[in-house]
User: Fold this.
Amino acid sequence: MLIIGLTGGIGSGKSVASDKFKSLGVAVVDADVASRTVVEPGKPALKEIEDHFGSGIITAEGKLDRNNLREIIATDPEERKWLESVTHPKIGEQITKEISESTSVYTLFVAPLLLETNSQEMCSRVVVVDVPKDVQIRRTAKRDKVSPNQVEQMVAAQMEREKRLEKADDVLLNSGTIEDLEKQVEELHKKYIQMVE
Assistant:
């Protein structure tokens, strides 16, 4: 099965690109979605998290209080490690399950930390959605309603743009319009279909 890994820095346009692949009939497996799925009410991971952190970590609706959890793990590296030891294997299982259930011509695996976590090893090709840093900062600040300074810190915490591009098999340059990006996706889609045929 052809698995295409899609990644890119914050504000690069991964969602726009993956939505376009989806509209072309490609199954999309998203690491962020998988990470939310494994902590849904009734899932074992949520029970483990509640047992560990206490009932204050659960909202009145019985869901995980992500903001509360984020605050805890931001200031306590040991708690972050514990949380990752519980959730990461389950997220991995969820991703593997979704990929194995895919029936489309090829499968797109979207992961912001694809290269940082060496998840590209399970992919046939890596697509990087690339954007100049100034555009990335401007878009993210506007989208998330945060200061450009905050965005710069987020960008600095991620893999450097040059390193990401070095590891790419294909690049979607997203410095123009959404339509420009979607046209590039269509071209890559044709290429991947030919690879499978």
Observations:
- The CA atoms of residues 5 and 109 lie 5 Å apart.
- Strands lie at 3-8, 27-30, 107-110, 125-130, 170-173.
